[in-house]
Amino acid sequence: MSFTRLLNAPLNILKDFVQLMRLELAPDRNMKWSMQLCLTIPPAAPPIAPSGMSSIVMIKNKMLFFLQLSRLVPGEPSHIAVPVVYDLSANVMQVADKRLEAPGAQPNAPVTIINAMLRRFAEFAPPNECCIFPSIREILTSLTIPPQ
Asked: The Mediator of RNA polymerase II transcription subunit 14 C-terminal domain covers which part of the protein (predicted)?
C-alpha cells in the first residue's frame, strides 16, 4: 500500500524517493548513518498509528513517511525510527512527534536534534527544489547524538 501511494506522489517527490532508495541500496561510505525507508510503521516509532500499518500517507498537501536510521558505533543509539512530515506547498520537513512539544522534552533526544536539523535545512534550501533527498542526506552525513 505504501509503495503504491508513493508511486502516486508528484514527480519531484517521486524523484527524491528514488534517490533515497538508491542511497539505501548503495550507501555512501562517508555517511555516519545508513537509512531504510519503512513501508510499514516500525514498532520503535512514536505512537502515531499501530505498528505494521502503511507508513506513507498523503493527505491534502502533507505527506507522512517513516525512516529508520542505523548506526553501529558504540555509545550512540543503533536504530532510530523517525516519522517525518513533508509539507508539499511550503517544501518543508519536520519530525512528527508530539513529544517534541512536551514541556519535559530532552534537547539531546535524537528526534529533537533531527527536527532542529530539518528546520535549519529549510532556511537554506533552494525554494524551487524538493528538499526531501537533500535534507535526509544532510542528516545521514552530519547527525551526531551526544551521550545521554
From this structure: 7-146
How far is residue 22's CA from residue 34's CA, in Å, rounded to a whole number? 12
CA 88, CA 17: separation in Å to the nearest integer? 14
3-state secondary structure the chain: CHHHHHHCCCHHHHHHHHHHHHHHHCCCCCCCCEEEEECECCCCCCCCCCCCCECCEEECCEEEEEEEEECCCCCCCCEEEEEEEEECCCCEEEECCHHHCCCCCCCCCHHHHHHHHHHHHHHHCCCCCCCHHHHHHHHHHHCCCCCC
Q: What one-letter code names the amino acid at 53?
A: M
Stretches in the chain below the pLDDT threshold 50: none
Whether residue 148 is contained in a domain is answered as no
Q: Tell me how many domains the chain contains.
A: 1
Domain of 73, in residue numbers = 2-142
CA 3 centroid distance within chain: 16
